[in-house]
Amino acid sequence: MTSGTELTPHVPRTPARRAGAPRTRWSRRRGVLSLFGGAAAFGMAVAALAPLGSALAVAQERPVEVVSLWADARSDAQALSTETGQAAVTLDRSGFEVYVAPKPTPTPTPTPTSDPSGEEAGSARAEPVRYSGGGSSSDWLAAAGIPESDWGYVDYIVSRESGWNPNATNASSGACGLVQAYPCSKVPGSGYDPVDNLSWANGYAVGRYGSWADAHAFWTANHWW
After folding, report:
1. CA distances from 174 to 1, 92, 162, 187 (A)
2. Quick check: 171 and 161 in contact, CB under 8 A?
3. CA dihedral defined by 194, 195, 200, 204, rounded to 10 degrees?
4. Can you tell me the distance from the alpha carbon of 169 to that of 138, in angstroms, rounded to the nearest whole number?
């Protein structure tokens, strides 16, 4: 039989560090190297970023310039002439045309003129010529071609229509003359001429009623004819 010590493997023991002995010099050297390495990296980063910061500061201080297309083209032309030693190039604008819309021609305002055939002539025609020739009723009856046998009937009607006034006019209807012809314009010649008025009345009495006697009978019954 073996003892218990013979069955347990032998493990060598590390000698314990004596109290007060200094630590291994490799850990302190590593700390110093790490410190110097960090400082060197920071310095390289600052050196690399310094030009970029300066460029950004200059860009912020420089004002923004607005350049038009014409100014840009002109500067390019001057730069080209300076480089080639030629005179400055003058830009040719003869190929451009400016179109200006013409103003519309104003419409002339018509000047009113007196037209004899217009209102003045119409007012002149609307105002008939009044009768001023004189004469008697018998003269007018004879000149109108009315037989003397009918003069009594004619006198009855004309006396009540106009009182033998050749210029008599109905204010409401416009009937005119001895027999008050309506409208006045239907009388050939002039409605105010007694002979023209009676000539028209003779044809009206015979044509409408058949005779002056029948026209007289209608007038007495109706007070108009």
Report:
1. 177, 85, 13, 13
2. no
3. 80
4. 22
Q: Which residue has the tokens 């204010």?
A: 171
pLDDT at 117 over 70: no
Q: pTM here?
A: 0.46
Which residues contact residue 3 at a Cβ distance below 8 angstroms, ignoring those fewer than 6 apart? none
CA–CA gap between residue 203 and residue 210 (Å, rounded): 10
- The residue whose two tokens read 């069955």 is 7
Q: How high is the mean pLDDT of the chain? A: 75
pLDDT band at 133; cut points 50, 70, 90: confident
3-state secondary structure of 146: coil
Element holding 56 (H helix, E strand): helix 25-61
On the question of a cis peptide bond just before residue 128, with omega within 30 degrees of 0, the verdict is no
